[in-house]
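User: Can you help me understand a structure? I only have the sequence.
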Amino acid sequence: MNRISEYINLYGRDLTRLCISLCNQRSDAEDLYQATWEKAIKNIRRYNDEKPFDKWLFAICVNTYKDTVKSSFRRKILSFNKTEDLDLTLNSISDDIAPHDEFLSLHQALKKLTPEKRQVIALYYFKDYSTKEVAEILNIPEGTVKSRLSTARQDLRKELNDE
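Assistant: Let's start by predicting it. Here is the structure, written out as tokens:
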């Protein structure tokens, strides 16, 4: 179990950020975080030590997120149901990274993207993975990643310029 504790210490914070960037609702992000670690622990024997652990973990996270989006009772991912959720998220962002009003605009724009586009945006921009790495994590062709990034950027530009 020490190995798992090490992984949680090493990758827990990055996984939290990925969950928040996918969900942006604290309770959904916490559920996704827990479900991801549960699946990772359950399947740790399948992990290939020759590959980076974070990519394997983030692929589990994204696939769990996809499953959640598909389920009918969780259709409203990426919205703040309570002011507390919004405040907690805003307080977790340093003003050095982005002023809160800019984050709110971006959050609203991201909320309008399809889950597939949010996934590539989160992995590419928030986790700094290359298009090839995003393709590996999502198990889709690299060209599809590039296409989704391109259309997501166009959608975001349009949405942010209309405000």
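Now, to help you interpret it: The two ends are 50 Å apart (CA to CA). The chain is about 75% helix and 0% strand. Let me know which part you'd like to focus on.
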